[in-house]
Amino acid sequence: MIKNYFEVVRAGINTTFQDQGRKNLYHIGIPFSGAMDNRNYLLANKLVGNKSDLSVLEFAYQGPLLKYFGDKINIAITGDVNFTIKKNNDLINGNCYETFSLENGNEIDITSTNRSVYGYLAFSGEFDLKSQWSSYSVNTKANIGSNDGKKLQVNQKINIFKINQNLKDKKLNYINTKIENIRVIKGTNFHYFSDQGKKIFFEKEFIVSKLSDRMGMRLEGSKIENIINTNIKSEGLIKGVIQVPADGNPIIMLSDHGTIGGYPKIGVVISADYDKLVQLIPGSKIKFKEVELSSAETLFRLYVLETQNLISQI
């Protein structure tokens, strides 16, 4: 029996194994982690016939160059990504949301994301990985998860535990749309900020800074004035919460966020907008728009239904 594996020729930028994350560990300081863009994660697994909770490779800006050894396998890439597949002397330009087959000695080169941050690479099979707290998701800040909690490394071998037999060609017509108005509900410390500060938060544009990663997204713009205290006793944080430190520039907590923090919280990004939020590249302009909790719940239900509808088309 041929052993199936990928050899990492180039690791890419922040390429990690991710699944749907780990739950109910906030009390010991462990965040959810998991795929930043959950919809694209789910679509990648569905395209190659995997169970919805299997791990995939998530990459940022530039992905890995991988050489495959083993039996025929299908791959799919989701997001807004440029990539090529090398089969012997043939170079094939890849399309996202479409399956491609790889055979022994073939290469896949993920050159860049296109006006977005994250992309996802799924294979029709299961990686040979060790889970931690019921998840393979990697948090590099804490060295948690599979692959010893680290990014992919050059010359590393990625072993495949088994290949599924669903090698049908599949394709989904889907375009990632951009978002500028990020919908939020008021945070628990909303009253800490002046009327002018609240007006700035909801009416002015902010710029996504270069100081953004899987842990958090820093924004730059007009300063949001705090009239009570720029620090609070450290308390629990959740994904999407927006803190405002003393410099008045908001920070949005993302998937690998710390579980406690001492900056006042002005708002929380609604779950329905999270996937599109994380795909905003540095320099992108965003505005916040307030919605009520009931509206946020309705919008999330619509997001789930739309995702399920896309999955059913594959």
Question: Can you put this structure into words, describing what you see?
Answer:
This protein has helices at 38-47, 195-203, 274-278, 293-312; strands spanning 5-10, 16-18, 56-60, 65-69, 73-78, 81-87, 90-93, 99-102, 107-113, 118-123, 125-127, 157-163, 181-186, 206-212, 216-220, 235-236, 241-243, 251-253, 260-261, 265-269, 285-290. It is α+β, with helices and mostly antiparallel strands and 314 residues long. The model has no long low-confidence stretch (mean pLDDT 95).
Tag the structure with descriptive keywords.
21 strands, alpha+beta, 7-stranded antiparallel sheet, 7-stranded mixed barrel, 4 helices, 14% helix, Cyclophilin, 314 residues
Quick summary of this structure?
The protein has 314 residues and is an alpha+beta fold.
